[in-house]
Write a structure and sequence with these properties.
7 helices; 59% helix; globular; disordered C terminus
């Protein structure tokens, strides 16, 4: 991402990554509740600083770029995690802290690299394209008594095939669009 020219200090990516890495270390379960709370608060603060910076940088990317779609997905994910309530048990607090740490890492990557794409960016983008198409398409919403699609939407079939290929990875062979029931699962 191209960092915007502003008077604000640039993000301290090294500190942010170190905090995220410490939180995601294998011995997190052995941390005292006070240390875990400190790390969680630091991660929360890092996200609060990173979200507006990455959001500003995303605005300079082309609207149809994979990097933009992935960055917007990661921003939305970070916002959800910022608004989530802290669990009551230690395992729930550890899980919350891990989710914050993964969001910090992703936003650091988006802020730092002009051409960065998350490893699962193609899956996310394909899924988002389906989410944008299906609700507005009459053919995609038409189902029979069993809940299976009966419409003949070529665009919907193509988007679903792209999503399936993205989930299989780069080694996936070409396939014909799937007709019939579309079983969607979150990326």
């Amino acid at each position: 991402m191209t960092r915007p020219a502003s008077k604000a200090m640039p993000l301290d990516l090294e500190t942010m990554r170190a905090c995220a890495n410490r939180t995601l270390a294998k011995d997190t379960e052995e941390l005292s509740p006070d240390v875990l709370e400190t790390l969680t608060l630091q991660l929360h603060g890092h996200l609060m600083l990173a979200v507006p910076e990455v959001e500003t940088a995303v605005q300079t990317l082309p609207e149809d770029s994979v990097a933009r779609a992935c960055a917007l997905f990661c921003l939305g994910d970070a916002r959800l995690r910022l608004s989530a309530e802290l669990g009551r048990t230690l395992p729930a607090r550890i899980a919350h802290s891990h989710r914050l740490a993964r969001s910090v890492r992703a936003l650091c990557d988006h802020y730092e690299n002009d051409d960065h794409q998350c490893p699962n960016a193609p899956v996310r983008v394909a899924y988002l394209r389906m989410l944008l198409h299906f609700p507005g398409c009459r053919d995609c919403r038409t189902v029979d008594g069993n809940g299976e699609t009966i419409g003949g939407c070529l665009t919907g079939d193509r988007l679903y095939a792209e999503y399936r290929r993205a989930r299989r990875g780069p080694s996936a062979s070409t396939e014909t669009p799937h007709e019939g029931k579309r079983a969607l699962s979150l990326p």
